[in-house]
From TrEMBL:
UniProt KW keywords: Repeat
PPR repeats: from-to residues: 241-275, 276-310, 311-345, 346-380
A Pfam family assignment: PPR_2
InterPro entries referenced in this protein's UniProt entry, alphabetically: PPR_rpt (IPR002885), TPR-like_helical_dom_sf (IPR011990)
Organism: Corchorus capsularis
PROSITE patterns named among the record's database cross-references: PPR (PS51375)
PANTHER family to which the protein is assigned, alphabetical: OS07G0661900 PROTEIN
Name this polypeptide is given: Pentacotripeptide-repeat region of PRORP domain-containing protein
Keyword set includes Lyase: no
Amino acid sequence: MKIRILLSRHPTSRYDSSFSVFPFKFFSSVSNSPQNDDAGTVYRIITSSTSSVNLIESLKSTGIFLSNDIIDNVLKRFRFSHGNPLQAFEFFKYTGKRRGFYHTASSLDNMLYILGRSRKFDLIWEVLIEAKKKDRSLITPRTMQVVLARVAKVCSVTEVVKSFWKFKKLVPELDTLCFNALLRTLCQEKSMTDARNVYHRLKHEFRPNLQTFNILLSGWKSSEEAEEFFEEMRVLGIRPDVVTCNCLVDVYCKNREMEKAYTMVEKMRNKEMWPDVITYTSLIGGLGLIGQPDKARDVLKEMKEHGCYPDVPAYNAAIRNYCIAKRLDDAYSLMDEMVGKGLSPNANTYNLFFRVFFWSNDLKSSYTLYQRMMDSGCLPSTQSCMFLIRLFRRHEKVGMALRLWNDMVEKDFGSFTLVSDVLFDLLCDLGKLVEAEKCFLQMIEKRQKPSNVSFRRIKVLMELANKYDAVQNLREQMAVFGPSNQLPGGEENLTETPDLDSLNVNHARRN
């Protein structure tokens, strides 16, 4: 079950970022270096090739040396642009066949991610078997987590565990690190309950360590159950650390058991296990849940007295309390205080306000805040865009909607698929066919597939306006994405946008 409280986060993220499925550097913006220009050229050749023979001949004709860095960049482009997985696979195979060449771990993981997203599981195992033959060291616990995460998206927990055991023939040793990768995958892609059940089934096969418990202790709803798990650690002789204790503080705060939370913090101090910013952020969230936003704000000051300085998520937790209490002046005051301390509000900060404005139908405040957000250089998240575009549609503000869309196209933020569905509904409802066609083509230029529902709506309007040539052009443009019932990444198309509160806002504690 997904935890839907703002302060619910995986508590090991700050301490164990090296184990995440993809390092942060994968998400950094692409620089304009000659190497990236070459990667762009190679990517265009691959996506425009009509056959394997044509692909190889075209790549050879460029004279570009396909180094590991260029290959990495090309595969990242496929991943983030939802490119054709089979084209990426052909490129990966071709470069891997060169004498004396070895793919990097990041190239392997990106390729597996691309194939997994489109459910090409047979090809995943083919790639892994070939990697084992050439360089077994490339198959790491992180690689395992990439594969298991994609399996978990569409398969049962039983199938995920079966896939885990397949790695026994691929890695030097199926050890505790691998076991932890399985548990982390289940926590992220299934539920904490699933992860804990699998732990109890398999714990005698492995030797649980501190990281194992730090993974499993996150996200408890029942403080009694969390305490029992905490006791199991003690029985096994595993000494908790700050991360472990933070999990218990967090579950107490989520259950409004603030006395227990403060007692736990005091025990940490007595053992010279100093509370960190995550500890205090949990306290801030807990105080907000019991209706004490002012006392939560005082925690920000208390932190400094203990040599721990609040970060953006800590301020976000305090701001959230005021937003829930509809005390927006205090919330804005805290955001200004953040800026004064040299901290930059992020998309999650703004989303706290956007949510209030959306449900109160406050168009003016939303648009003013959006302008402030863009002026500050903070790019909106998908949730920010959805709050805004739905409000613009409700008020039939085409100009504002197009401003948001053009910013998305220019600065490349947000989900084009989700936002475009609402935008095209607005434009079609008001008969803005020229604008709809332009946005549609802009989306295709970004290699983002419009939904079939949007395509059909625009197509009907064009036919009514006798614009049959334009219809044919759009149909040809859509053909590059393959079968009409699939998105570019191979996942089934959705005709409805998700609920705003499900768009990853409440899982962004450390963002």
